[in-house]
Amino acid sequence: MAAALAGDDLARSMSKSMSSRRSWASASIREVWQAPPDVFQRSGRQEASDEEELKWAAIERLPTYDRLRKGMLTQVMSNGRVVHDEVDVTKLGIQDKRQLMESILKVVEEDNEKFLTRLRARTDRGGIEIPKIEVRFQNISVEGDAYVGSRALPTLLNSTMNSIEGVLGLVGLAPSKKRVVKILQDVSGIVRPSRMTLLLGPPGSGKTTFLKALSAKLDDDLRVSGKVTYCGHEFAEFVPQRTGAYISQHDLHYGEMTVRETLDFSGRCLGVGTRYEMLAELSRREKEAGVKPDPEIDAFMKATAMAGQETSLITDYVLKILGLDICADILVGDDMRRGISGGQKKRVTTGEMLVGPAKAFFMDEISTGLDSSTTFQITRFMRQMVHIMDVTMVISLLQPAPETFDLFDDIILLSEGQIVYQGPRENILEYFEYMGFKCPKRKGVADFLQEVTSKKDQAQYWFRKNQPYRYISVAEFAQAFNSFHIGQQLSEDLRIPYDKSSAHPAALVTEKYGISNWELFKACFSREWLLIKRNSFLYIFKTSQITVMAIIAFTVFLRTEMKAGRIEDAAKFWGALFFSLINVMFNGMAELSMTIIRLPVFFKQRDFLFYPAWAFSLPIWFLRIPISLVESGIWVILTYYTIGFAPAASRFFKQLLAFFSVHQMALSLFRFIAAVGRTDVVASTLGTFTLLLVFVLGGFIVSKDDIKPWMIWGYYVSPMMYGQNAIAINEFLDERWSDPPPIPTGEPTVGKTLLKQRGLFVEEYWYWICIGALLGFSLLFNCLFIAALTYLNRKSLKHVISISSSNVVSTLTGIDMALENTQGSSSSAASVVKNESKRGMVLPFQPLSLAFNHVNYYVDMPAEMKNQGVEDSRLQLLRDVSGAFRPGVLTALVGVSGAGKTTLMDVLAGRKTGGYIEGSVSISGYPKNQATFARVSGYCEQNDIHSPYVTVYESVLYSAWLRLAKDVAIETIYVAIQTFIYSLLLYSMIGYEWKVEKFFYFYYFVFMCFTYFTMYGMMAVALTPSHQIATIVMNFFVSFWNLFSGFLIPRPLIPVWWRWYYWASPVAWTIYGIFTSQVGDKKTPLQITGQPDQALDTFLKGYLGYDHDFLIPIVIAHVGWVLLFFFIFAYSIKFLNFQRR
User: Fold this and answer.
1) How far, rounded to the nearest angstrom, does the alpha carbon of residue 237 sit from its chain's CA centroid?
2) Which of 273, 370, 768, 1000 has its CA 20 to 30 A from that of 797?
3) Which region among 583-597, 612-626, 950-964 has the lowest average model confidence (pLDDT)?
4) Which string of b and e fits 689-714 if b means at least 16 CB within 10 Å?
5) Which keywords accompany this UniProt record (predicted)?
6) End-to-end CA, the chain
């Protein structure tokens, strides 16, 4: 009730009881004329009253700061005795809050209006004026640019052409192909406080854009003209996002948080506005006048006026009036996690803004997913807030029931971006009768208003039988309204400027955020810690992965096999160091997907001024530090001495510091990439590209001395280079590598010789420089992450117009806008005729009946409810439900929001993956077999989950074809083209021998490598419950494959107990194939220091294990890897289901 507590915001109602020091004259008339009660009956009450007066007198003597934090709660004991307890309102327990709410709102439908009246009465008696906001909009026009038809689809060709045209358009060399779309056209009017305003209009009429324009939420790429003022002040003079609240029709919440936690966090960030200052002034006046307020109202007002509380009483109030108290401690849930119903989620979106101190509300389609009864109740509560607390409120509803429609005071009817009517609800039918249209007696007024401006439906409402009907356009309606008496009065009101001096000083908010920076940080920090705990499985899984990989690493590079001190001993140490480095870096890549999934909610809350980007980012950074320390520590503790690195304890801790710094750098790098990419596809592509650059320029794959001079800058800006230098310096400058080299190299020790050969730094002080650089990169990437979140907006598919047979429907920044279109009608009509001429087969159809008997459904009691004192182990959602559906009979399943409609449908359709089901379900008398039933049934869920990158037609066609194999084929064609270009460039750059056979082999192995990695990615996603887990699993096996690929350590040098896994690494087969096909047949002699010359093919076979005669099996094996991953993927998506339902 953000707004009601605009009234709260401003102070509260006065109490009915007077202080014990009042005179006889101040007593009530009822007390004066009432006969004296029996003295013995009175004594108990008098004792309780005396006790209350004494405690209240003690509170009144406290300093203002303490007095505003103390209240009194009344409790009736089991023996009937009334006890008055003094409480600190900032530390109310669960039971105290429940007790207070029960005393205020025992039956919310009956008591809410009384409660608000008591609040207002206290404020009025104290002489405190409640701020009011009048919103005026004059000559508002909104338009944008959008591509039309197939050009609007986000294909590779269209994206390329759009980018090129955009660049050319900047210099004026090419005109834009976009079409101008007018969303709102010269709309003017007034939204007054204390009057409920209903915004009506058909889909695509511009309602969302209108509400966003009033609440200063329009996208920056829209062109806006006209003026919106609050109490005569334009948007630049105050902070409209906090003065008013826009409630979106899209439900974006963290599924891991409960309903109560979601609203508590919102209320904590939005603050209490001027409630505290108003309460302080009201309390001062009451104290001077000797007035004692109603203890319940006083406690409520004090509890809701304290900013920065983790949990607030205002949350309990909003939960109560929105009917969310029954699911307050249930997770909100998401696509993969069981949670509250769709209707309840919609109410959470509404409650998220009501808990704040806003004084004007603009609510967009708040009834989606709600039954008419619940919509009526919520609208009635909103009406009470508006009328009693002088709130300003506009609510957009698509099809309100008649009883809901009658709750509103004013109506704004919008059609095709123009206002057809704005004024009192009582006069709207009069206006349309003035225009010649009459609403039938048994027709809902709201439905009539939606249809009367439609060309298709308008004629049926024409009632002037003596005049021929003609279509009245929206523009004509809008023009005629100006001559109607309501329109004339509105124009007259708009001509008189609002008197700014009459505005309440607390009406408009000038502070950007609701609480201090420190409180914002604490709020975001506590929420981030909560999300980490709720996702503990993810972090445990991630830590387990690095633990397993560390165990594998030390068994491969076991110290019994690791000789040290000589140049020829260094190869395995280089491999172990580099493998450790890439593992710690890859372990941070999961941060990318974990950040991406958080961004939609962040962008919503950032734009609503819940908190700035830094308040969201810093807790993530700080809370990842102990995680980095744990994961780096596990790796170093398990691998350092078992592999046999430098034995000095100082070297151990220096390697730990190096890996910790690398891990922190990697986490911050991937967070930054996620913030720049903002979508899974873009961010993953950027992340992979960045990793490749960092690896190539890191100093291991390509030595510093081999990097071209014009690319040497890349070496110094690669964070991995500093990590590579730090761990290498720490190892090879140890005493055991201090012997002089056998052959003069210009360096005094073997260790420095090894470092010099790799182009690394050879002085000890460079270790600390590298550590400083890594921490500097971490700081830089975190600052860039904050900057990206501050200035970038959420990516969305917008500026799209698709042409249909009779109109152009545009989706522009989420707004549907219908436009008349005279083009294309002939071609579409021809297509209809063509389609009608086609005939298909007549398929046999067997009608089926479905019966269910004594169905019960239970789930395990949520931990949050157990924490609230619920002792039952299971929560029953369906209770002894029986019924039957017959063929040829259309059955409506109705019930209030949260009644269990979706749960019943899930159970009958066999979609539940958890919980406990009792009872029987039969199909035409036979027990239901789910495998068979799934083939003959269709289940249309309420959640709209679709790919955003396909058209409606393509989506329906995909469902009809079930074209899995075709999709894979399409993907393979794309990979083939991509790898051909890549192979052509890479083959020529490397300088391989130009022979058709060799190029074909090279292209084949690269193509198959791309393909099996694509199949592997699909398989990993299908086998795991979330993208984050899939990323962790993929990184684990990629690191595993790289370790045994023959690159870090040749196959003959791999310990015999691990050598078998060389053949289980697809990367090893690819490297084997490329090496063997390109140079495996060459007899060129090689000169090897300390060894006799030998032919290249002999060296490859003896040292690396590559045999040219094994080339054909390598070719066949690649096909096997692709088929293996594909069939596992296909099996997984058929039989595995990770949705928690």
Assistant:
1) 31
2) 370
3) 950-964
4) eebeebbbbbbbebebeebeeeeeeb
5) ATP-binding, Membrane, Nucleotide-binding, Repeat, Transmembrane, Transmembrane helix, Transport
6) 32
Question: Long-range contacts made by residues 1067-1072, C-beta under 8 angstroms, separation at least 24?
Answer: 1067/1009, 1067/1041, 1067/1042, 1068/1041, 1068/1044, 1069/1114, 1069/1117, 1069/1118, 1069/1121, 1070/1005, 1070/1006, 1070/1008, 1070/1009, 1070/1118, 1071/1045, 1071/1046, 1071/1047, 1072/1046, 1072/1106, 1072/1110, 1072/1114
Q: Are strands 135-148 and 179-191 parallel, antiparallel or unpaired?
A: antiparallel
Of 728, 752, 758, which is closest to residue 739 (Cα–Cα)? 752
Answer yes or no: are the C-beta atoms of 42 and 50 closer than 8 Å: no
- Compute the chain's Rg from CA coordinates: 36
Say what the pLDDT of residue 168 is.
80
808 forms beta bridges with 803, 819
Strands 360-364 and 244-247: parallel
322-363 pLDDT, tens digit per residue, is 988 888 888 998 877 778 888 888 899 999 999 989 999 999
Output the CA–CA distances (angstroms, integers) from residue 1009 to 132, 190, 352, 1003, 1068, in the order listed: 67, 64, 49, 10, 11
The position carrying tokens 């004629």 is 459
Q: Residues 460-484: what's their mean pLDDT?
A: 89
26-84 tens-digit pLDDT: 333 233 333 344 444 444 455 556 776 787 778 778 888 888 888 887 776 666 666 67
Residues 6+ apart with CB under 8 A from 855: 878, 880, 881, 882, 904, 907, 917, 918, 919, 920, 921
Q: Tell me the whole-structure pTM to 2 decimals.
A: 0.78
pLDDT digits (tens, 9 = 90+) for 371-390: 888 889 999 999 999 999 99
* Number of helical H runs and strand E runs in the chain: 44, 21
Pairing of strands 392-396, 360-364: parallel
SS3 790: helix
Would you give the DSSP letter of residue 337? B
* pLDDT tens digit sequence for 843-877: 567 888 899 999 999 988 877 677 777 778 888 88
For the record, the structure tokens of 854 come out as 């004594």
Mention every residue, 6+ apart, whose C-beta is less than 8 A from residue 384.
112, 113, 116
Give 649: exposed, middle or buried? Use CB within 10 Å, 0-12, 13-18, 19+.
exposed
Name 170's Cβ contacts closer than 8 Å, sequence gap at least 6: none
Q: What are phi and psi of 955, to 5 degrees?
A: -65, -45
CA separation for the pair 800, 158 (Å, rounded):
12
Q: With beta carbons less than 8 A apart as the criterion, state whether 2 and 362 touch.
A: no
Alpha helices in 588-679 (DSSP H): 590-596, 599-607, 613-643, 649-677
The pLDDT assigned to 851 comes to 92
When pLDDT is cut at 50, 70 and 90, the band that residue 100 belongs to is: confident
What's at 478, amino acid-wise?
Answer: A
Spatial neighbors of 1070 by CB under 8 A, at least 6 apart, are 1005, 1006, 1008, 1009, 1118
Buried b / exposed e along 386-416 (16+ C-beta atoms within 10 A): bbbbbbbbbbbbeebbeebbebbbbbbbbbb
**One-letter identity of residue 477:** F
Residues in the chain: 1141
CB 246 within 8 A of CB 211: yes
Question: Alpha-carbon distance 1072 to 1046, whole Å?
Answer: 8
Long-range contacts of 68-71 (CB under 8 A, 24+ apart): 68/276, 68/279, 68/280, 68/283, 68/302, 68/305, 69/302, 69/306, 70/302, 71/295, 71/298, 71/299, 71/302, 71/303
Rounded to 5 degrees, φ, ψ at 554 are: -75, -20
Measured torsion, CA atoms of residues 588, 589, 592, 594, in degrees rounded to the nearest 10: -70
